[in-house]
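Revision sheet: structure tokens.
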Amino acid sequence: MAQKDDKIKEIIRELAAQFFSRESNRTSMITVTGVDLYSRGGKAVILITVLPENQEETALAFAHRQLTDFKAFVQDHSRIARIPFFEVEIDKGEKNRQKLDEIAKSM
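Predicted:
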């Protein structure tokens, strides 16, 4: 089951990256860093990072507005039998990793 979940997560991650790249207005760069699946595939949380960081709230609001269209995009471009309910969040783990990298470089 874990292998199937990993495959679904990767498909959703790739489709989300394509979709947000195509739909964004390019004022910020949205990077899809991962996908978490919950409720046996019934819910998927798409994790993103945004550059510049001062555009995070705007990009997150944009991503939330696009979720209905994204669900249709996933239905059209994949063979996932059960399309999950999507949410989008800022990837705090990735942000913390980047901060640790900066600290390590300064030592």
